[in-house]
Amino acid sequence: MQKIVINGGRPLKGEVAVSGAKNSVVALIPAIILADEPVTLDGVPAISDVDSLIDIIETMGASVDRQGETLVIDPRGIRDIPMPYGKINSLRASYYFYGSLLGRYGQAVVGLPGGCDLGPRPIDLHLKAFEAMGAIISYEGEYMRLSARENGLNGANIYMDTVSVGATINTMLAAVKAKGRTVIENAAREPEIIDVATLLNNMGAHIRGAGTDEIIIEGVEQLHGTRHQVIPDRIEAGTYIALAAAVGEGIRVTNVLYEHLEAFIGKLSEMGVRMTVEEDAIVVDKQENLKAIHVKTSPYPGFATDLQQPLTPLLLRAQGRGSIVDTIYEKRVNHVPELARMGADITTVGTKITYSGPNKLTGAPVKATDLRAGAALVIAGLMAEGTTEITNIEFILRGYSNIIEKLTQLGADIRLVD
Ligand code: UD1
């Protein structure tokens, strides 16, 4: 069992580069199954979710060549192999194989998705969309069987009852090779959806409107190879910006698209965080006199639920009382008791987090309960006086590329211990 040990209280300085987006790449890899030729991805982050996806597609028969951040996937050897168990159950994004296998083979036998426990995470909207396109779905205990009728999937008009990133992307994956036109209404608008649509269009798909709440897909018969640069990870960027504001003495975060972070940057400005926005970087100065604020998460372009936990330690430095309400995952509060263990004045009342500051944190043994809670604990550990030991760090390594190396380069005393 590995853990992260941090000796906190050291000021950090320098430059840190953001990697490719986790939530894009976990959809881009399953999307490549739909191609009839090799596809190259550049900017692939070194995270364990990518390792798991590579493992899964290699098991299916794809050949994969990974050199640094470049991944070449040749899907031609893929066979329609049932994938009910194993790695498939370890990550949430394995649900993208439902859409891509269904789109490619007209059938799929795939295990249920895993991932972080953020309370109930249904996939009813994904299944409703596949059914609207003519798929027959049966739930067989630990896995799902999906099959198109004899004449394959047909385009359909689909209204999403809730704005869902996963259901929007999965519907696109199933629809790109379906017969006729699919229209997704109330689609999610996250940048990762545009990234997946860009890859698919460069493979020969006809998708319009990605990034708006109406996406129109005209089915095509074949998809070919292409080369694609994964967009920067806006959540990793936000995490480093929050960290820079919490413990930095001048940190430049590079490979950032400001347009993807407007809500987050807006809230930091409200706290009084001083930053300079450059073309593809954000420079965060040393901060004093921060003000407590209220944060409410909502679908893009609102404040991202994935950034609520990484922001929390910075909020604890601010003067006054504030709150966080997560409207996407009400139970995304597992970082709160761990931060309280480090001395923070923070509690959960119902589904609302309230805090009061400024706080002085003290190092303590804490547990990462999910990916973004883990990021919050890393930042808190860097802020705290003394030593913080974080266990369950496999969650953190699922989503933060080279985090130990990146923080060490900024001057942090952080190490991975077996
Ligand atoms: C994606 C992200 C995750 C992020 C989340 C919200 C990936 C791999 N993960 O997760 O990091 O926190 O978006 O921005 O991209 N819902 C339903 N039925 C469904 C699907 C979703 O009710 O069939 C609900 C969910 O419970 C949640 C809301 O819709 O309350 C949004 O979820 P969704 O956008 O689908 O999240 P994911 O795509 O799973």
Describe this structure in words.
The chain has helices at residues 22-32, 48-60, 96-105, 124-132, 165-175, 191-202, 234-247, 262-271, 305-315, 335-341, 371-383, 394-397, 403-409, and strands at residues 3-7, 12-17, 39-42, 63-67, 70-74, 107-111, 135-140, 143-148, 157-159, 181-185, 206-208, 214-218, 227-229, 248-254, 275-277, 281-284, 294-297, 320-326, 346-349, 352-357, 365-367, 387-391, 413-417. It is of the alpha+beta class. It folds into two domains: 3-19 and 232-417, Enolpyruvate transferase domain (UDP-n-acetylglucosamine1-carboxyvinyl-transferase, Chain), CATH 3.65.10; 22-229, Alpha-beta prism (UDP-n-acetylglucosamine1-carboxyvinyl-transferase, Chain), CATH 3.65.10. The strands form six sheets. A four-stranded mixed sheet has the order 21-22-1-23. Strands 2-14-16-15 form a four-stranded mixed sheet. A four-stranded mixed sheet has the order 4-5-3-13, covered by helices on one side. The radius of gyration is 21 Å and the shape is elongated. It starts with a strand and ends with a strand. The model has no long low-confidence stretch (mean pLDDT 95). The structure holds uridine-diphosphate-N-acetylglucosamine.
